[in-house]
Design goal:
The complex is a heterodimer of chains A (about 110) and B (about 120). With about 110 residues, chain A is mostly beta strands. Chain A is built from no helices and nine strands. In chain A, strands 1, 3, 4, 7, 8 and 9 form a six-stranded mixed beta sheet that branches. Chain A has a three-stranded antiparallel beta sheet with strand order 2-6-5, with no helix packed on it. Chain A starts with 8 loop residues before the first strand and ends with a strand. The relative contact order of chain A is 0.34. Classes of the chains: A mainly beta (about 110), B mainly beta (about 120).
């Protein structure tokens, strides 16, 4: 149950697109199309942004999109806005009916 | 309004026990799997445990297996986490979270309850 690997930080200017990677193994990301992404502001509760690799919950901006290739999942934020500055975590369903979260990525809007 | 409200956190000595509760409202609690996720101060999210809608299936992270017990009472719309043999590394905010069986994602979260293990 090792954490999925994410970059510690990613930054971009307003209007740009950024991508956050999430690398796991064949026991989690590589085996299941059950990767989700969460946004968390400091001191606040995590919010579901993407589920099942690329599906967006109702009410979440379509500027957020997800994809997966092999053992790596990705979250792309298009048209970056100041309000997107937050921590982002990936999560994958894993072998043994467990879950594993990513190490987290701090997104900074320059 | 769909809502999850945790309670039961506090300060406990190493080796002690604590029971967390999570009260659900605004949805059919008995139709959803439920989970506990924790976050140590300044750290990332860590999945702790899951329980299926009818309590038939229960799973734990290796870090808490044998020490923590998840349970639920569908008649009371409540989720619980019994935590025994607590360690300093269990210090964290504990969130309860709902997961629809199809998506296996955590779509609704409570506000969290802080557990501090310290002498």
């Amino acid at each position: 149950q090792s954490a999925l690997t994410q970059p510690a930080s990613v930054s971009g200017s307003p209007g740009q697109s950024i991508t956050i990677s999430c690398t796991g193994t064949s026991s989690d990301v590589g085996s299941y199309n059950l990767v989700s992404w969460y946004q968390q502001y400091p001191g606040k509760v995590p919010k579901l942004m993407i589920y099942e690799v690329s599906k967006g919950p109702s009410g979440v901006s379509n500027r957020f999109s997800g994809s997966k290739s092999g053992n790596t999942a990705s979250l792309t934020i298009s048209g970056l806005q100041a309000e997107d500055e937050a921590d982002y975590y990936c999560c994958s369903y894993a072998a043994g009916s467990t879950y594993v979260f990513g190490t987290g990525t701090k997104v900074t809007v320059l | 309004e769909v809502q999850l409200v945790e309670s039961g956190g506090g300060l406990v000595k190493p080796g002690g026990s604590l029971r967390l509760s999570c009260a659900a409202s605004g949805f059919t609690f008995s139709s959803y799997s439920m989970n506990w996720v924790r976050q140590a101060p300044g750290k990332g999210l860590e999945w702790v445990s899951s329980i299926s809608s009818s309590s038939s299936y229960i799973y734990y992270a290796d870090s808490v297996k044998g020490r923590f017990t998840i349970s639920r009472d569908n008649a009371k719309n409540s989720l619980y986490l019994q935590m025994n043999s607590l360690r300093a590394e269990d210090t964290a905010v504990y969130y309860c979270a709902r997961s629809p069986s199809v998506s296996y994602a955590f779509d609704i979260w409570g506000q969290g309850t802080m557990v501090t293990v310290s002498s």
